[in-house]
Amino acid sequence: RTLKIGLIPGDGIGKEVIPAGRRILEALPASLGLKFDFIDLKAGWETFQQQGVALPDETVSVLKSDCHGALFGAVSSPTTAVKGYSSPIVALRKKLDLYANVRPVKTVLTAPKPIDMVIVRENTEDLYVKEERTIQTPDGPVAEAIKRISYRASHRIATIAGEIALRRQKIRAAGAPSIHSGPLVTITHKSNVLSQTDGLFRSTARDALKDPRFASVAVEEQIVDSMVYKLFRQPEAYDVIVAPNLYGDILSDGAAALVGSLGLVPSANVGEGFAIGEPCHGSAPDIQGQGIANPIATLRSAALMLEFLNEEAAAAKIYAAVDANLEEGKLLSPDLGGTAKTEEVVQDILRRL
Ligand code: NAI
Ligand code: MG
């Protein structure tokens, strides 16, 4: 099988880590029967400065018509509004209907307190529909935002969370060491206060997970604030967490802090038959150009993309090579307390692959 993969490095360290993602895919053993065609694509702040758009139409159309998946690095976004600029990854999620943002947060098993969870964040609605308005009143301005939750979006996000729980169980059953005994999905919400919006999310997710396919998946729910508390006290208790957009955004950055460095945490934006792997970190202007960015978030994102393209065996090889590098702990980048350059970390992982 030949997979066509779009490469969108973006800005800053995106340009240093996406080439590493390409190399790890090219280095997969031939016995897997996988080949790759890579297509270089543009997006980001530099693209905006050159072309006046942050996400050229060509990037979108090539992804839609020619690619199975993509790797996206990071883009630099201005902190105040710049006319004509909007975040390309947010636009891509919409244009390609990438409705799930999947973020595994994992330590190696030999860590003092191993963690192995996946946060599945709804990616298309909630407060992020960005329908805001400001009303002028005699007491000053009042700003409002729409929080939109639909049955359809809640149902499909809970369904993919259930599928991810089953797939993780399958990988464990195949002998991968794990801290979890069985598949568990935790539904996160605040329906005690927001009974209609979060209420709909909660009841729909429960419904979706009642499907007989998920008979072996344990389902629990947790109110989002106590969830944060428990996530920090007892992170080992979580397997798959499913959440509406805003809570998922916050929980996933918080969870990333548990494993020590943003440079380790991958994500995937997933739609029907399409996936974009994306490291969770940004363009890291403070370290760009020094050759010291940690490539692991990107390598794991490449593996995650493969998982959603039904290439689990290839994904497992990448995860194992990365874990072996971390467990040995000799060639670590500076964000992990080491002195290795990006290139040395990549070389070590390629050798293990
Ligand atoms: P950041 O993630 O770029 O950096 C935060 C800190 O983590 C920095 O100290 C950085 O050096 C470190 N770091 C991040 N990735 C690393 C890696 N792979 N290896 C070693 N150290 C790493 O977040 P920040 O500084 O808030 O944002 C910088 C720029 O990135 C901004 O323009 C922001 O808008 C953009 N950004 C883009 C994202 C995306 O494209 N998805 C996500 C987050 C931020
Ligand atoms: Mg975020």
Strand content: 15-25%
Stated plainly, the CATH topology of the largest domain is called Isopropylmalate Dehydrogenase
Q: On the 0-100 scale, what is the average pLDDT?
A: 94
Total count of strands = 12
Let me know the largest β-sheet: 10 strands, mixed
Global morphology:
globular
Report the C-alpha radius of gyration, rounded. Answer: 20 Å
Helix content bin? 25-40%
Structural class: alpha/beta
Write out the strand line-up for the largest beta sheet, numbering strands in chain order. Answer: 2-1-3-12-11-4-5-10-8-9
Which CATH architecture of the largest domain? 3-Layer(aba) Sandwich
Distance between the ends: 20 Å
CATH domain class of the largest domain: Alpha Beta
CATH homology-level superfamily of the largest domain: Isopropylmalate Dehydrogenase
Q: Which stretches of 5+ consecutive residues score pLDDT under 50?
A: none
Total number of distinct structural domains: 2
One letter per element, helices H and strands E, the order comes to: EHEHHEHEEEEHEHEHEHEEHHH
Name the ligand types: 1,4-dihydronicotinamide adenine dinucleotide, magnesium ion
What is the number of helical segments per DSSP (H or I, 4+ residues)?
11
How would you briefly describe this protein structure?
This protein is 39% helix and 20% strand. With 353 residues, the chain is of the alpha/beta class. The strands form 2 sheets. A 10-stranded mixed beta sheet has the order 2-1-3-12-11-4-5-10-8-9, sandwiched between helices.
What layout of secondary structure does this protein have?
Layout: E1 2-10, H1 14-26, E2 35-40, H2 45-51, H3 57-66, E3 69-74, H4 88-95, E4 100-106, E5 116-122, E6 132-137, E7 140-145, H5 151-173, E8 184-189, H6 197-208, E9 218-223, H7 224-233, E10 240-243, H8 245-258, E11 268-271, E12 274-277, H9 296-308, H10 312-328, H11 342-352
Parallel strand pairs: 1-2, 1-3, 3-12, 5-10, 8-9, 8-10
Antiparallel strand pairs: 4-5, 4-11, 6-7, 11-12
Bound molecules: 1,4-dihydronicotinamide adenine dinucleotide and magnesium ion.
